[in-house]
Amino acid sequence: MNTTTTLLRSAFVLYFVIALEVLIMISPFAGFFYSVFNPVLLRLAAHSSTRWLSAFYLPHMVLPEDSLLQFVRVTGSVLVVLGMAVFCICAIQIYAAKFMKKGAVLGGLYSFIRHPQYVALGLAGLGLSILWPRFLTVVLWLLMALCTISWRRTKSGGC
User: Fold this and answer.
1) Are 60 and 41 in contact (CB under 8 A)?
2) pLDDT tens digits along 61-90
Protein backbone atom coordinates (compact mmCIF):
# COMPACT_ATOMS: atom_id res chain seq x y z
CA MET A 1 0.00 0.00 0.00
CA ASN A 2 1.39 3.42 -0.85
CA THR A 3 1.52 6.41 1.47
CA THR A 4 -1.31 8.32 -0.19
CA THR A 5 -3.73 5.41 0.15
CA THR A 6 -2.76 4.93 3.78
CA LEU A 7 -3.28 8.63 4.51
CA LEU A 8 -6.65 8.65 2.79
CA ARG A 9 -7.85 5.58 4.66
CA SER A 10 -6.62 6.97 7.97
CA ALA A 11 -8.38 10.27 7.32
CA PHE A 12 -11.59 8.40 6.45
CA VAL A 13 -11.47 6.44 9.72
CA LEU A 14 -10.77 9.56 11.79
CA TYR A 15 -13.58 11.54 10.18
CA PHE A 16 -15.89 8.57 10.73
CA VAL A 17 -15.03 8.72 14.44
CA ILE A 18 -15.91 12.43 14.51
CA ALA A 19 -19.23 11.76 12.76
CA LEU A 20 -19.93 8.94 15.19
CA GLU A 21 -19.29 11.27 18.12
CA VAL A 22 -21.72 13.82 16.69
CA LEU A 23 -24.38 11.13 16.24
CA ILE A 24 -23.89 9.93 19.80
CA MET A 25 -24.06 13.46 21.20
CA ILE A 26 -27.38 14.21 19.47
CA SER A 27 -28.89 10.95 20.67
CA PRO A 28 -30.65 10.41 24.01
CA PHE A 29 -27.28 9.27 25.36
CA ALA A 30 -26.25 12.93 25.51
CA GLY A 31 -28.77 13.56 28.29
CA PHE A 32 -27.15 10.81 30.34
CA PHE A 33 -23.67 12.10 29.50
CA TYR A 34 -24.44 15.63 30.65
CA SER A 35 -26.30 14.51 33.77
CA VAL A 36 -23.27 12.46 34.86
CA PHE A 37 -20.52 14.89 33.88
CA ASN A 38 -22.24 18.20 34.69
CA PRO A 39 -21.07 18.13 38.35
CA VAL A 40 -17.50 17.45 37.16
CA LEU A 41 -17.65 20.35 34.70
CA LEU A 42 -19.08 22.69 37.32
CA ARG A 43 -16.39 21.68 39.81
CA LEU A 44 -13.67 22.34 37.23
CA ALA A 45 -15.21 25.75 36.51
CA ALA A 46 -15.29 26.63 40.22
CA HIS A 47 -11.51 26.61 40.68
CA SER A 48 -9.32 29.30 39.14
CA SER A 49 -6.56 26.84 38.22
CA THR A 50 -8.86 24.60 36.16
CA ARG A 51 -11.39 27.17 34.91
CA TRP A 52 -9.57 27.48 31.59
CA LEU A 53 -9.97 23.73 31.01
CA SER A 54 -13.73 23.74 31.41
CA ALA A 55 -14.03 26.98 29.46
CA PHE A 56 -11.84 25.96 26.52
CA TYR A 57 -11.62 22.17 26.14
CA LEU A 58 -14.92 21.23 27.81
CA PRO A 59 -17.26 24.08 26.82
CA HIS A 60 -20.53 22.15 27.02
CA MET A 61 -22.16 23.48 30.17
CA VAL A 62 -19.89 26.40 31.02
CA LEU A 63 -19.68 29.79 29.36
CA PRO A 64 -16.30 31.49 29.65
CA GLU A 65 -16.19 34.54 31.91
CA ASP A 66 -12.64 35.47 30.95
CA SER A 67 -12.50 38.21 28.31
CA LEU A 68 -9.55 36.53 26.56
CA LEU A 69 -11.50 33.28 26.13
CA GLN A 70 -14.53 35.22 24.91
CA PHE A 71 -12.29 36.97 22.34
CA VAL A 72 -10.92 33.59 21.24
CA ARG A 73 -14.50 32.28 20.80
CA VAL A 74 -15.49 35.32 18.71
CA THR A 75 -12.34 34.88 16.62
CA GLY A 76 -13.30 31.24 16.01
CA SER A 77 -16.78 32.29 14.91
CA VAL A 78 -15.38 34.90 12.54
CA LEU A 79 -12.97 32.36 11.02
CA VAL A 80 -15.75 29.81 10.44
CA VAL A 81 -18.08 32.36 8.82
CA LEU A 82 -15.29 33.97 6.78
CA GLY A 83 -13.93 30.61 5.61
CA MET A 84 -17.32 29.31 4.55
CA ALA A 85 -18.23 32.60 2.84
CA VAL A 86 -14.98 32.60 0.83
CA PHE A 87 -15.51 28.92 -0.02
CA CYS A 88 -19.04 29.62 -1.31
CA ILE A 89 -17.94 32.68 -3.29
CA CYS A 90 -15.18 30.67 -4.96
CA ALA A 91 -17.59 27.81 -5.65
CA ILE A 92 -19.98 30.25 -7.32
CA GLN A 93 -17.10 31.53 -9.48
CA ILE A 94 -16.09 28.02 -10.50
CA TYR A 95 -19.57 26.72 -11.29
CA ALA A 96 -20.62 29.91 -13.07
CA ALA A 97 -17.58 29.59 -15.33
CA LYS A 98 -18.30 25.90 -15.83
CA PHE A 99 -21.98 26.42 -16.74
CA MET A 100 -21.16 29.35 -19.03
CA LYS A 101 -18.26 27.38 -20.57
CA LYS A 102 -15.73 30.15 -19.95
CA GLY A 103 -12.82 27.87 -18.99
CA ALA A 104 -10.61 28.18 -15.94
CA VAL A 105 -11.36 30.87 -13.38
CA LEU A 106 -8.48 33.32 -13.25
CA GLY A 107 -10.13 36.39 -11.68
CA GLY A 108 -11.23 37.28 -8.19
CA LEU A 109 -9.40 35.42 -5.44
CA TYR A 110 -7.99 33.02 -8.04
CA SER A 111 -5.80 35.85 -9.35
CA PHE A 112 -4.02 35.96 -5.95
CA ILE A 113 -4.16 32.34 -4.75
CA ARG A 114 -4.16 29.21 -6.89
CA HIS A 115 -6.61 27.31 -4.66
CA PRO A 116 -8.49 29.75 -2.41
CA GLN A 117 -11.08 27.10 -1.51
CA TYR A 118 -8.38 25.05 0.28
CA VAL A 119 -7.37 28.14 2.23
CA ALA A 120 -11.01 28.89 3.01
CA LEU A 121 -11.65 25.36 4.27
CA GLY A 122 -8.49 25.58 6.35
CA LEU A 123 -9.71 28.83 7.92
CA ALA A 124 -13.15 27.37 8.59
CA GLY A 125 -11.55 24.26 10.08
CA LEU A 126 -9.33 26.38 12.32
CA GLY A 127 -12.36 28.34 13.47
CA LEU A 128 -14.25 25.13 14.14
CA SER A 129 -11.29 23.81 16.12
CA ILE A 130 -11.44 26.96 18.23
CA LEU A 131 -15.22 26.81 18.70
CA TRP A 132 -15.36 23.06 19.35
CA PRO A 133 -11.88 22.39 20.72
CA ARG A 134 -11.92 18.65 21.21
CA PHE A 135 -8.51 17.08 21.07
CA LEU A 136 -9.70 14.95 18.16
CA THR A 137 -10.90 18.01 16.21
CA VAL A 138 -7.65 19.89 16.75
CA VAL A 139 -5.55 16.86 15.78
CA LEU A 140 -7.65 16.24 12.67
CA TRP A 141 -7.35 19.88 11.62
CA LEU A 142 -3.58 19.62 11.94
CA LEU A 143 -3.60 16.36 9.94
CA MET A 144 -5.76 17.97 7.26
CA ALA A 145 -3.32 20.88 6.98
CA LEU A 146 -0.30 18.58 6.84
CA CYS A 147 -1.91 16.25 4.29
CA THR A 148 -2.89 19.23 2.13
CA ILE A 149 0.64 20.61 2.25
CA SER A 150 2.10 17.17 1.51
CA TRP A 151 -0.36 16.54 -1.32
CA ARG A 152 0.31 19.95 -2.88
CA ARG A 153 4.07 19.31 -2.80
CA THR A 154 3.74 15.95 -4.54
CA LYS A 155 1.38 17.37 -7.18
CA SER A 156 3.62 20.34 -7.97
CA GLY A 157 6.88 18.44 -8.13
CA GLY A 158 8.09 18.99 -4.59
CA CYS A 159 8.29 22.78 -4.53
Assistant:
1) yes
2) 446 677 887 788 788 889 999 999 999 999
